[in-house]
Design a protein that fits this description.
The protein is of the alpha/beta class. It has one domain (about 20-205): Protein-Tyrosine Phosphatase, Chain A, CATH 3.90.190. About 30% of the residues lie in helices and about 15% in strands. The protein is built from seven helices and nine strands; from the N terminus they run βαβαβαββααβαββαβ. The protein has helices spanning about 35-40, 65-75, 85, 105, 110-125, 140-155, 170-180, and strands at about 25, 45-50, 80, 95, 100, 130-135, 160, 165-170, 190-195. A hairpin with a 5-residue loop joins strand 7 (about 160) and strand 8 (about 165-170). The longest helix has 15 residues, at about 110-125. The protein is globular and about 40 Å long.
Length: about 210
Amino acid sequence: MNSAVPDFDSDAEPMPSREGAPLFTIGYGARTLDEFLAVLKANQIEYLIDVRTAPFSKFKPEFSRELLQYHVERAGLRYVFMGDTLGGQPKDPACHNDGKVDYDKVRAQPFFQGGLERLKRAFNQHRRVALMCSEGRPEQCHRSKLIGEALATAGVPMHHIDVDGQVLTQAQVIARLTHGQMDLFGAASFTSRKRYAPAENDAKSEPP
């Protein structure tokens, strides 16, 4: 498998024709592999960034890391694994609260900040990037609740490809998640939907 460092990790010049392009996210959900690749092509995605802590699926093995990378690169895209820095189920106990992943705590971690900087470079270079996870609905995934909120704070726009192919802004997804009810300061704190033991084997589950 090609494990070359992606172009946006270098000091490459921005691509003027891509100016203003947001970062995207997508979950494979109920999609077949062909449907998934077709959606990426339709949105002119160049880089697929896998942000699953555990990049495996026993229910859909074609979306496990090695097979997915093979098919993605065969389709002419680049596959990059970043679940070690941007995954929704970090092992560090400092990121957990009552068994759930506390996304505010994750955002403060150096490993997450490092991953975020790589995404900012991709944005500044106007790359067509899509972050992927298993959950089809963005409002139920750390793509929006953790990464999208962190990027919004940094002034980086993120768009989410929904289960029906509709493209939603980060604000639209958060409004769907909170039913429009934010706190008095216009902010909200989010956690994972499920409880995880920090020492749990990565391969046994996929983060929401």
